[in-house]
Design a protein that fits this description.
Helices cover 37% and strands 19% of the residues. The chain is of the alpha/beta class.
């Protein structure tokens, strides 16, 4: 027999052996998932004795995490911009630094705007849903080459009841022929194909096509930037997330392709994370 507090202490000890893991938080997330309760329940009833079935289920979840499987894939859930999203191994795990891209976009989009926005490589739909929830008069179109990812995005749309988002299958701008947008936003793959981080941590489990983009990690960004003019309204914005060491290269791509007001923004860790430019027409 074990109480909630005792089970958490044991799991914390096991998870604490993993590098760069918030062991206490992850132990609570996994136990709350095993109990089908919110995390607050654990703090309210720390002395509650756990049923054997729950304890066994929790132990299995902890062992999966100890083998390196990301918590988001174990639970099938991840919060982004305060929105609960379903995720799977067909999608990237939404990360806090990508919320900076949402903040930058909201600074550009007037509160009552009725903009047309494209989210390229939408994955679980995290960026699209964040913008749709904050700017309900805007229409967001997400594209993705992965039909499995789009199935997850569509399920998230139904659960969140965000009716101003639609999804189309296809690579980047390919399914958007003839359409122009006020804003194009994307968190494309930007990890170099030979980067050792691809064999470490959570990245080992995430879809490689959503992570890696050629020898320098810039192939997808080059393609998007060079194609964006044909899909932006005059005065429209292009906003891309990228690696923290890619800022100078991405700024140059923007300026070489005729974008104005180009600026590289830093994330919450003060690392260069997103570049923005305006198509002046």
């Amino acid at each position: 027999m074990s109480t909630i507090q005792q089970a958490l202490t044991t799991a914390f000890s096991q998870l604490n052996q993993l590098p760069d893991v918030a062991a206490r938080l992850e132990a609570e997330i996994l136990l709350a998932y095993a109990l089908a309760k919110p995390r607050a329940y654990l703090h309210t009833w720390p002395q509650q004795v756990l049923e054997k079935s729950v304890l066994d289920r929790f132990g299995t979840l902890v062992q999966r995490r100890c083998r390196g499987e990301p918590v988001a894939y174990i639970t099938g859930q991840r919060e982004f911009w305060g929105l609960p999203l379903t995720v799977s191994t067909a999608t990237l795990i939404p990360r806090p630094e990508t919320e900076r891209l949402v903040e930058i976009a909201l600074e550009k989009i007037p509160a009552q705007a009725s903009w047309h926005i494209a989210d390229l490589g939408t994955g679980s739909g995290a960026l699209a849903f964040a913008l749709a929830s904050e700017r309900p008069r805007c229409e967001i179109t997400g594209t993705d080459i992965s039909t499995a990812a789009l199935a997850i995005a569509k399920a998230n749309r139904q659960r969140l009841n965000l009716t101003n988002v639609r999804f189309i299958a296809g690579r980047w701008f390919d399914p958007l022929s003839g359409r122009r947008f006020d804003l194009v936003i994307s968190n494309p793959p930007y990890v170099a194909s030979g980067d050792p981080h691809l064999q470490q941590g959570d990245l080992r489990f995430e879809p490689r096509q959503a992570l890696s983009a050629g020898p320098d990690g810039l192939e997808a960004i080059r393609e998007i930037v060079s194609s964006a003019h044909a899909h932006l309204q005059p005065g429209g914005w292009l906003m891309l997330e990228h690696g923290f060491a890619q800022g100078d290269a991405v700024v140059k791509l923007f300026t070489d392709n005729g974008f104005a007001h180009v600026q590289c923004h830093r994330d919450y860790a003060e690392r260069e994370r997103a570049t923005v430019g305006r198509f002046t027409g």
